[in-house]
Automatic annotation (TrEMBL):
InterPro entries: NAD(P)-bd_dom_sf, Sacchrp_dh-like_C, Sacchrp_dh_NADP-bd. This is Saccharopine dehydrogenase. Coiled coil: none annotated. Transmembrane segments: none annotated.
Amino acid sequence: MSHILIIGAGGVSQAATVKCAMNSQVFTKITLASRTKSKCDKIAKFIKDKVGVDIDTAAIDADDTAAVVELIKNIKADLLLNVALPYQDLTLMDACSQTKIPYIDTANYEHPDTAKFEYKLQWAKDGDFKSANTMALLGSGFDPGVTNVYCAYAKQYLFDEIEYIDILDCNAGDHGYAFATNFNPEINLREVSAKGRYYKDGKWIETEPMEIGFSWDYPKIGPKDSYLLYHEELESLVKNIPTLKQIRFFMTFGQSYLTHMKCLENVGMLRIDEVEHNGVKIVPIQFLKTLLPDPASLGARTKGKTNIGCVITGIKDNKPRKVYIYNVCDHQECYQETGVGAVSYTTGVPAMIGSMMVAKGIWSGNGVFNMEEFDAKPFMDELNKQGLPWEIIEMAPNETRLIKEI
Ligand code: NDP
């Protein structure tokens, strides 16, 4: 019996809120609040028509901790799911620790002016949550989120020791535009234009953006060019799987996307600092967001599949072992069910499952936690029931699906 307060009303929120409504035995009441209330009302209408559940909506500025505290108290929320932007993580965490309710999010904190994403400031709130006798669950999307749970499942059930992890994220969906981003353009472009980084033999190694790449044969999709990026789950997995010798993250990009990115970068459109244009101050990357298609609108026109998974190598019973755990999701199937495509769906469904683990007390504790710190099994079981079934390929230790280096 839980009243969930969901903050943010974009594509990820739509998937998460629809799925919460479909699990109304757990989420007995839902309030959806965002900066623009009309976006919440639109999702509420979709849910009423599709699932037959009524939800409440509200306007909120999530940057204003006092206003969020007041809302939590007024509606008597039992837990808060943050699917607004990473900029709001800290203020929403403070509102939760002050009102002593659990906090769940899908992306680590980013400062709008520095494009630096790391867990440091969120982990630093561990004491606040411990004092409040409640918990924060960080990164309950797909990557981070399900990828952390795949690694935890491997650590807890499949291996005695994990040595190498490659996380491989493929979006083979075609939306028909020359250039558009899969989720919030500002967050997406900041992530993919940053320097790459991976962990090897106790050290972090920095690369130029898109410097390391290969063509990888994704199950049920086929070969796709994939490039090394820094991704936030690397930070927590290195901390929580101390036997790791190497962990890397790869994401697929088509040639058209890369060419557009290069041009935009060359002309300064990815800048995150203010510039003056005809006497008006603008941040170029925010202006670009205004021009690009709204990611939430891509669902209806995107055809094809995603495949996100982990190739994990290590030791089991004194013998080398290698497994590939992944999920394949179809954009149009996601759209038919929730009104959004696979990128929002694969993030919103785990956001709901993480909230469910917390609401049912299956995952519990006092403090700030990452996904891999809990028993992976109940979450893995729920993935199969809630629309994100996973598969495992047992690979020979020297087998690879790498087709060629780029
Ligand atoms: P959108 O930009 O589509 O939606 C963000 C929503 O947050 C909008 O409704 C926006 O309101 C609202 N919002 C922004 N600022 C505030 C504020 N100050 N107060 C209240 N509401 C606010 O983003 P997405 O749905 O694409 O992504 C949501 C989150 O999911 C992001 O944090 C993203 O990083 C994360 N994500 C995580 C992934 C994972 O696998 N872990 C993958 C993809 C995304 P308004 O309508 O007024 O603009």
